[in-house]
Design a protein that fits this description.
mainly alpha, Tetracycline Repressor, domain 2, Arc Repressor Mutant, subunit A, DNA-bd_HTH_TetR-type_CS
Length: about 200
């Protein structure tokens, strides 16, 4: 679970617009076109804000990007927690999580892409702070997958002989790979077929 940081809006400035709504629009823009593919002019149009409003709220484009990334990580963690909440076995939780990613990665939603994947590819080598944020996020997701595998091995829904650390890495790669493939417009049937194949390995 991510924790809120100080990127949302600068203190001491009265809100003249819905910050969360603006950040949601920024998330979509940055996910589709990346940081370098998005100009302040693009953000003016996308968010419906002047450059002055953006600078007053977030300092600069990077500040807005960090705020959008923070909100994206928080929302993703909440969505994942919700999709696992009603599942009982470790295997059922893994399947629910992969199906969740499959639906995120297909058709129109998939073409928008994942802000984490986009950021990892575009900025991790050039920006050490962002690299740490993305690395920590990937570590959390991998650790969660490992816990679910071990839970499944304990409750008998996942084969005991499977190597939990290596399988967790494989599942993480599958999740992130789905988001990459989804940028080309893969359909739901293809995505769910991949999940089905993977789940067969756990039995």
């Amino acid at each position: 679970m991510t924790t809120k940081n100080d990127f949302s809006v600068r203190p001491g400035r009265p809100r003249e617009f819905d910050t969360d709504a603006a950040l949601d629009k920024a998330i979509t823009r940055f996910s589709e076109y990346g940081f370098h593919g998005t100009s302040i002019s693009d953000l003016n149009t996308c968010l419906g804000l002047t450059s002055g409003s953006i600078y007053k709220a977030w300092g600069d484009k990077r500040g807005l990007f960090l705020a959008a990334l923070d909100r994206y990580l928080t929302r993703r963690a909440e969505a994942i927690a919700a999709c696992l909440e009603s599942k009982r076995s470790g295997r059922d939780k893994i399947e629910a999580l992969l199906i969740h990613y499959a639906h995120l990665s297909c058709e129109a939603a998939g073409r928008t892409g994942c802000l984490v994947v986009e950021t990892a590819v575009e900025l991790s080598r050039a920006d050490s702070e962002i690299a740490r944020l993305i690395g920590a996020q990937q570590d959390r997701r991998e650790a969660q997958l490992r816990r679910l595998i071990e839970e499944g091995q304990s409750d008998g829904s996942v084969r005991e002989e499977l190597d939990a650390p290596n399988l967790a890495k494989l599942l993480l790669v599958l999740q992130q790979g789905m988001r990459v493939v989804g940028k080309t417009g893969s359909d739901t049937e293809q995505m769910l077929a991949m999940v089905n194949e993977l789940m067969g390995l756990l039995e």
